[in-house]
Queue: 4 jobs
Job 1
Amino acid sequence: MSRVGKYPVVVPNGVTVTVSGAEVSVKGKLGVSALQIVDDVETTLDGNHVWVKPKAETKRARMMWGTTRALINNMVKGVSEGFTVNLEINGVGYRAAVQGKVLQLQLGFSHDVNYPIPDDVTIKCEKPTSVSITGKDRQRVGQIAAEIRAYRGPEPYKGKGVKYETETILRKEGKKK
């Protein structure tokens, strides 16, 4: 039984949710998001709460119950507040800069790494060693952060590379004489 699916999704002020058939659409100050609901669950709107219930007691229905509730909750939070992932860049000469619609990364290669910024997210560099990725879709923001981190992940000896702000690097000791 899903423990996540038991609870309703609370819709804050300024966000409108419409449930029509097998589609849930959420509209807020940051944009509009839509989700196709699978046949195993049903979604109802009750005042400022969205309830998700399984249609049957099958294993797939129970799995999709919690998943659908979490996806709707992420859509509501995304259009009202948005999601942000912060990256840190460590290393001598390692830096980032936004130039137009391109994130330019200098990560110790013989060339600069240019990452084109998609239209649905915003990327900012307050300092040359920090990158902030913001958007309304949680999956998209996390995917872009993972792609940028994958160019030069943190290494365990000196900690050089791109890492998440909340990530801790397990350091190794290195060679001994």
Job 2
Amino acid sequence: MKRNSQLSGVLHVLLHMDAHDAPMTSEVLAGAMQTNPVVIRRIMAGLREAGYVRSEKGHGGGWSIACDLKAVTLRDIHEALGGPSLLAIGNRTEAPGCLVEQAVNAALTQAFDEAEALLLKRLGGVTLAALARDFKKRLAARGGPHEMEKAHAG
């Protein structure tokens, strides 16, 4: 079963952007997410609409953080991405008239809804600033500068 790692990837590039003193191009960010720059531009457009990032055109342009990291939660970013499903599992729907399937789906739907509500609550309790602090702590423990290109070299 394929997992959707978009939220994790976006949080990843946002922390790289925060650690970088200048705007970062879609091409550089795509390297960090191991995706195509077009995908980055599409994702960043949604984050820009929400006010979390800004873009600058021309030489030296690119994407940069446009918000206070203390005021933005992981849930906020999840919602800016369109609120994709948080669970990779779901109900069987091949035989909607089957009473067994109906009973199973009713029980599972309740469990899925409760799990998603808990997960959204937890995401709402973690800010981008908390992630940035954790990253900086890890960087200090390792010693040396933050070099995204080296960290993501194949």
Job 3
Amino acid sequence: MLIRRERPDDHDEVAAVTGAAFALPAGSGPPVEVALIGALRAEGSLLAAMTLVAVDPSDAGAQVIGQVTASRGTIAGRPAVGLGPVAVRPDRQHGGVGSALLHAVLGAADALGEPAVVLLGDQRWYARFGFRPASAVGVVSPDPAWGDHFQVRTLSAWTDALAGPFRYAPAFDGLE
């Protein structure tokens, strides 16, 4: 498996992987995560150095088997990374693809001097990567109903003075 930056020619495969990973019941239409990635691209909020794909060179054509989307968010008006969606092709789930993507994106974010990566997700799964409830370090969720599912992974550039309300990229405002 190879983890690399997403390229424009990956967009259709990223949409297919994301659509399959977040599939809704038949007749429900595509999952919002697919449209979200497109909206983040269109508004220029994607962080190209941290929006990654996993490819398996042994697959015909080295198809995308997983992806992670990183976008510009803010904590108290200062830059931070909003993570998600993260998706793995259903036939490749539970094989380490998602973990490899998370390790890669966190390493890239730290190397680029980002102070924190923020996400909404399963606490049990993301805890293995050092995520914890955002409220534990004073990062305030955009929606209090998210509770401890709203999580943060602080990085080397983090200081407690960076705490405050988190805001996702504008594309997230259109989610239903």
Job 4
Amino acid sequence: MSNMFPLPNAQWPVMNPGSVWLCGAGPGDPGLLTLHALNALRQADVVVYDALVSQEILDWAPQAHLEYAGKRGGKPSALQDDITRRLVELARQGKRVLRLKGGDPFVFGRGGEEAQTLIGAGIQVRIIPGITAGIGGLAYAGIPVTHRTVNQSVTFVTGHDATGDTPTSLDWDGIAKGSQMIVIYMGIKHVGQIAARLIAAGRSPDEPAAVVVSATTPKQQVLDTTLGRMEADIAASGLEPPAILCIGEGVRLRDGLDWQALAVGLAPVPRPAMAAC
């Protein structure tokens, strides 16, 4: 273990037999993995991983048995209760278990649910945060979720609840009025309903919006649109999840901050000015 990372006096946590580490793998780019996550990958006996965890990341655990437990909306997926029971089972077998999730386990990742069950079963748990797509994915698209002169508040929202429908427990009027930047996870399926609620609550249909698909990966695509056109533009583009939706004036900053386009000599195309109300 002492030779794993060339850092002086680093004391890296040891994964004990019979424990489970709930770990965020970041939004996709293997380089966005944390050192604690890499440390966990090198120690685990079993890695129980999600659909958005890349093979490049899994390759850092050559000694581990890999178990797929991906959940994707609208596709055959493992049941959450079955996943959690499997984590308990593996830990009780004395395995060093790494539960590896895309993004951050505590940001729309059900990590809290899994941790509660594991702790209730008397299993030692460690939480390793990861970079969530709503921040890291938008940064790769050239969109800062906060900016001192444009947007000083951001709200992260899930696009569906436990039933798969648009969340009814959310105060959409409050979100529309109270946040300059709205970032929506898992929102493509219900984008029309979400946009309609935000517009009904007072957001302009001309407000800048962006859809970032497969963020931070080589497959990343960014759709520049507006709140009012977002549903139609997504349908016309054929884009599919995983995606982050972003709504707010801060999206305009992408015009000059699309650093990936600039790196290959492409000039970002400025948006047209927003019509005066």
